[in-house]
Amino acid sequence: MRVPFIKMHGLGNDFIVLDARAEALPPMTAALAAALADRHTGIGCDQLVLLEPSTTADFRMRIFNADGGEVEACGNATRAVGVLHGAAARIETLGGELQVTPADGGIAVDMGLPRFEWDQIPLAYPMDTHTMPVAWEDLDQPTAVNVGNPHVIFFVPDTDALELDRLGPEIEHDPLFPERVNVNAATIVSRTHIRLRVWERGVGLTRACGTGACATAIGAMRRGLVERSVTVSLPGGDLAIDWTDEGRIRMTGPAVESFRGTFDPATYGVTG
């Protein structure tokens, strides 16, 4: 049995999409996800996305990082799935229900309400998440936000000058974050513009991170550094982030299909 896949990306954050909504596929495991994500011996991706039927929404989206770990949310993947679906939809995820809508500039995603309590991030012990009394070398006093997955955000003079490839994994695996954490380094350009780089949990440096853009924008808005509608510029391109009067996060940006293909699960040790 050969399994069809769709390769997509949102601002260079790339995905393998497997669609099991109409026809069952071989069970997904951490080992299989990691093998398919390998850029040398697999198909290659930052995240693998598995679409399945849902009893509570239009369909269910499961997300596996490149290390094989299943995670709660991925904003760029949600936009990619919105492009693939081609219509407004409610999507069940581990991080909660998301809503996608076609929009000018791509797909708009209602990411829901941000969470700020220490045990909602989660952190290992109680702490003010607005201005956290912690530091890693010169990176200090971050803010933390959960937007379906956990993020810590540092505001720095020049995000491009930061050794995020060195500090990112150290912070990701710090015991303060029992579920690990996505690490964001942001520079405020103006009241409506943020530059951002992200070390993604279980992936590493990526060209774009939709949930990171959302979390960073909310963190900056919460501190009064920017307006409630901003452009977040990542290495792969720009996302528009709005914090609505109802308190919900709206992310808008592009996603595209790259190519389609098939693979043989037996190549990756799956039989039967």
Name of the CATH homologous superfamily of the largest domain: Diaminopimelate Epimerase, Chain A, domain 1
Total helix count? 4
Q: Please give the number of β-strands.
A: 19
| Beta-strand share of residues | 35-45%
Secondary structure category: alpha+beta
List the uncertain runs.
Answer: none
Which helices and strands occur, and which strands form pairs?
Elements: E1 3-10, E2 13-19, H1 30-37, E3 47-52, E4 59-65, E5 70-71, H2 75-85, E6 89-93, E7 96-103, E8 106-112, E9 135-136, E10 139-140, E11 143-146, E12 150-155, H3 164-172, E13 182-190, E14 193-200, E15 204-205, H4 210-222, E16 229-234, E17 237-243, E18 249-253, E19 256-263
Please provide a brief summary of the model:
By secondary structure, the chain is an alpha+beta fold.
